[in-house]
What does this fold into?
Amino acid sequence: MAELNCLIRDLSSVRSSDRFHSAEALGELGDKGAVEPLIKLLGDEDLSVREGAAWALGELRDARAVQPLINVLGDENSVVQRIAAEALGKLGDVQAVEPLFKALGDADLSVRESATRALSMLGDAQAVKLLPKSLRGEPPVVSQNAARTFSRLLRPAKANQWAATLAGGAAFSLRLRAGTYLVGESHAITWNFLSSCLEVLFSVPSLAYSGILWIVFALPGWLWVQRRQQTVPGIGGWLALGWGFMVEALYGLILRWTLGTTVFLTLAMIPVWISLLIGIYLGLACWPKARQRVNGFRCRDDFHRFVPGPRLGWMVRWSGRWFWREKDAPKSMADSCVCRACGKNNRYEGVKEVVAVLDNHGGYYPQQRNAVLRVNWLENKLPFDFDRVEVVDATDTEVEQFHRQMKYQADPQIQKRLPKMQCVVNAQCRFERENTMTLLRQTFGAVERQ
It folds into this structure.
């Protein structure tokens, strides 16, 4: 007690060094009876004395010193401000939260760092409520230092809430820092974390930024489409490209190889996932129906089957034109199919069977009747796609030429179907050579006379 009284008496010494050393000693002594004398010393004219008094009050940790230390945050000297901020952190009183947030905007780096450390020590839920308010209208340095603080300030659930508030804000530098924390740490994937991610993605500033980026993306996209000759993105393609561009521009800098990033990206790309499902559904619904119609097409020039044209790539077909489509597309995808031999679209429709006829009488071929197209091979003697053969009136030489062409000169698509085909020889067609029927049996699956 005598030592305490002696030290308190020395606080009134005319020598500033005595006052400074006495203040430090009282802080080390830890007796709260020195709180009031030390508070008075915060207004001392000597810089070092004010520093010693602020430090000592932080060591004593008495609530009576909170308001006086808050007042000292406005001291003209940055060293005194820094020591006062650290002392407030040690006191742990939530009254200091808002003044410390304001100190984050101080011009002196050491004051900002001390305020950051003090906020980390406080760790009160009130900080989350005060942070958005304290950031409004403040200079960027306030937001940036606050963003550095939140990862240490609160429990993970509240830190996520804080990070979401910051990362969904309008200040881009703040979005970067807060977003990096939110998705870059090893978070437990809880509803709190998911809701924090959604808050970032659908905040008003995020949606405003998204709209601006869509406009930025749309103009060059439109110019690019004008230069395309055959295919262009469909509705789903524009959505996927634009949304991917937007997510990369807004959040690309915050992404890390973490589980949090994976979850955040999954949520950010929800419109793309929905679009993907729509594309799969349309592809499964539209292309098989169009392909069934295409199976009935035959070229009027060379009687070959139709295949998807150069504009009808797999992305066009299997997304039902949702992700990719033909430029100036016809009503049906079937109309973009072409002859597999000549590449033209001049066609017969509704053909279920093509019959290759060998008939020297000629004159009435080709003819289509009841979904059956009959084509006289002897008129041009070129390979084409057929399903059945009829020999009505042909010589041995003509049959041999037909056999040789189909067996050795036709393309693989025709050759592989030959063993499964039926060949009917008219009973009135008489061959001079015995091996003519043998050649037909070697070429086709079933040969019979009728």
About this structure: Residues 244 and 269 are 8 Å apart (CA to CA). Residues 276-347 form one domain. Residues 132-144, 151-157 have pLDDT under 50 and may be disordered. The two ends are 133 Å apart (CA to CA).
